[in-house]
Amino acid sequence: MVEREVDGHAPTAVVDASVILTMRAKLPEFTGALQRVAELVLADPANAARSTIVELAERSGTSPATVTRFCRALGFEGYADLRLGIAAETGRARAAGWSVDIGREIEPGDPLEKVLEQVMAADTRAMHDTAALLDLSEVERAAQAIAGASRVSIFGASGSALVGEEMQFSLHRIGVAAWAWTDVHNGLASAALSRPGDVALGISHSGQTRETIEMLAEAAGHGATTIALTSFPRSALAELADVVLLTATQATTFRPDALSARHPQLVVLDLLYVAVAQRTHQRSHAAFQRTAQAVDPHKAAKHSGVH
């Protein structure tokens, strides 16, 4: 198993990356009044940055003391520091050209042009946030483990299962023995056969999907190096894993966090796939050529003169 390096731990990357990302990552830890403050700020960060501590407390139905506790939970000395951090971040977003106010509702009657703009803006912002959030040293460790693995087991449920199957397909094309398990019984049986030198990858946006946690834990118990792909660094799945790869999301109406996480997850796994291919270049190149030749006869024939 790979030992996690303290200075490469994922939560540090969250704090360094972004005030909003830190807040979003910590949201599951907050309850009651602190959660209300967090949700209000996340709903409209720019407005929160313009508000006084009393105004924010009133709108969240809390007190100035609660807002101060919230700031300290995020690592700030007080509300003034939090306001400066949010203001700087929203200013960078405007400078980067985020013309759409992400987080606003998509109404049932909105024209498709507006919906397209909103979805594109949300996905683009999520990609940029993921790039800021991702700890590349963790990607390096994951790639090294997969490149040397005797087999790779990939676990996920629902939408995460589809992402896992895409990763399995990519790894197979370059000669990595990988299997994606979506049924918990089959996944647990496979995980029970894990041994040192194997790799197990668990995918869950929330990091709280019970089946995925169980399968990854079973693999870990038999010596496999474990990797978690999640949006929450303090989730049960992340705490279980040797290596944690983090993604960011931008939810919109009709596209909750779990669904909007799909594209950032695919981007991170694409990066991981390329990193594995780099480390196994000769084997990967030969395998890719052989697999391409195997399927080439099934491609539609090209006829001259057909338009």
TrEMBL record:
<feature type="domain" description="HTH rpiR-type">
    <location>
        <begin position="17"/>
        <end position="93"/>
    </location>
</feature>
<dbReference type="InterPro" id="IPR001347">
    <property type="entry name" value="SIS_dom"/>
</dbReference>
<dbReference type="InterPro" id="IPR047640">
    <property type="entry name" value="RpiR-like"/>
</dbReference>
<dbReference type="Pfam" id="PF01380">
    <property type="entry name" value="SIS"/>
</dbReference>
<feature type="domain" description="SIS">
    <location>
        <begin position="142"/>
        <end position="282"/>
    </location>
</feature>
<keyword id="KW-0238">DNA-binding</keyword>
<dbReference type="InterPro" id="IPR009057">
    <property type="entry name" value="Homeodomain-like_sf"/>
</dbReference>
<dbReference type="InterPro" id="IPR036388">
    <property type="entry name" value="WH-like_DNA-bd_sf"/>
</dbReference>
<protein>
    <submittedName>
        <fullName>RpiR family transcriptional regulator</fullName>
    </submittedName>
</protein>
<dbReference type="Pfam" id="PF01418">
    <property type="entry name" value="HTH_6"/>
</dbReference>
<dbReference type="InterPro" id="IPR046348">
    <property type="entry name" value="SIS_dom_sf"/>
</dbReference>
<dbReference type="InterPro" id="IPR000281">
    <property type="entry name" value="HTH_RpiR"/>
</dbReference>
<feature type="region of interest" description="Disordered">
    <location>
        <begin position="287"/>
        <end position="307"/>
    </location>
</feature>
<dbReference type="GO" id="GO:0003700">
    <property type="term" value="F:DNA-binding transcription factor activity"/>
</dbReference>
<keyword id="KW-0805">Transcription regulation</keyword>
<dbReference type="InterPro" id="IPR035472">
    <property type="entry name" value="RpiR-like_SIS"/>
</dbReference>
<keyword id="KW-0804">Transcription</keyword>
<dbReference type="GO" id="GO:1901135">
    <property type="term" value="P:carbohydrate derivative metabolic process"/>
</dbReference>
<dbReference type="GO" id="GO:0003677">
    <property type="term" value="F:DNA binding"/>
</dbReference>
<dbReference type="GO" id="GO:0097367">
    <property type="term" value="F:carbohydrate derivative binding"/>
</dbReference>
